Amino acid sequence: MTARYVTGEAPVSTRWRAARADAGAFDLLPDKENYRRPAGA
């Protein structure tokens, strides 16, 4: 896990959540407020 941060790559879970968020699936995330971001960001 540490190596991912060293290389600047987000953890798989974060990338998955971001992808779902970009797809308009905020309602699927119980902690959606922690991952809300502008579209295409």
- Structural class, judged by helices and strands? mainly alpha
Gyration radius (Cα, Å) is 11 Å
Total domain units: 1
* End-to-end distance: 23 Å
Hey, roughly how much beta strand do the residues contain? under 5%
Mean pLDDT: 59
Q: Would you identify the regions where 5 or more consecutive residues have pLDDT less than 50? A: none
- The total count of helices amounts to 2
What does this structure look like?
The termini are far apart. The protein is 39% helix and 0% strand. The protein is built from 2 helices and no strands. The chain has helices spanning 2-6, 12-22. The protein has 41 residues and is an all-alpha fold.
Topology:
Elements: H1 2-6, H2 12-22
Characteristic terms for this protein:
0% strand, 41 residues, 2 helices, globular, mainly alpha
Give a brief description:
It is built from two helices and no strands.
